[in-house]
Amino acid sequence: MTLDDYNGFCASLPSTTHVVQWGGAHVWKVGGKVFAIGGWDKGRQLFVTFKCSDIAYDVLEEQPGLRPAPYLASRGMKWIQRQTSQSMDDGALKDYLRESHRLVALKLTKQVLRELGFGAR
Predict the structure, then answer these.
(1) Measuring CA to CA, which residue among 114, 52, 106 is closest to residue 80?
(2) Which pTM does this prediction carry?
(3) Segment 86-96, tens digit of pLDDT
(4) Cβ distance 65 to 93 under 8 Å?
(5) Domain limits at 74?
(6) CB distance 80 to 68 below 8 Å
(7) Which strands sit side by side in the sheet containing 79-82, from one edge to the other?
(8) Quick check: is 9 in a domain?
(9) Distance of CA 19 to CAs 22, 34, 47, 76, 121, Å?
(10) Which pLDDT score is estimated for 43?
(11) Widest CA span of the chain, in angstroms?
């Protein structure tokens, strides 16, 4: 997945915003909350970090090309970083990004959800 592919896909999800922060990472948010982070390994390989369910985390954390997300996972959060497509192709990554967006949106207040056009939970 290229940076353009990553940004284009995240932009296609409902009510998302984009900011470049944390040393050049492309951060995508829904309702002001992060659901995806795209950054580089020494400027070469795009790494994509996303939130996932407890079960998905347990399965993914040991897969080649994936790892618990630095900083986030060490604080008990269930975030995975895809470093290579060895165990997760771009199609599966998009599915996980879509799910990350959903998981983060579920934690938003009813008021924020209404403001974003999601309606009440």
Answers:
(1) 52
(2) 0.91
(3) 999 999 999 99
(4) no
(5) 3-115
(6) yes
(7) 16-21, 25-30, 33-41, 45-51, 79-82, 66-68
(8) yes
(9) 10, 10, 16, 25, 27
(10) 62
(11) 43
How many structural domains does the chain have?
Answer: 1
Are 16 and 117 a contacting pair, CB within 8 Å?
no
Tell me the mean pLDDT in the region 86-108.
96
Q: Which band of pLDDT confidence, cut at 50, 70 and 90, is reported for residue 120? A: low
CATH number, position 108: 3.90.1150.30
pLDDT tens-digit profile of 13-69? 999 999 999 888 999 999 999 999 999 776 678 999 999 999 999 999 999 999 999
Asked whether residue 120 is domain-assigned, the answer is no
Asked whether residue 121 is domain-assigned, the answer is no
Query: What type of residue is 47?
Result: F
Judge whether residue 121 has pLDDT over 80. Answer: no
Residue 39 lies in a domain: yes
Amino acid at 6: Y
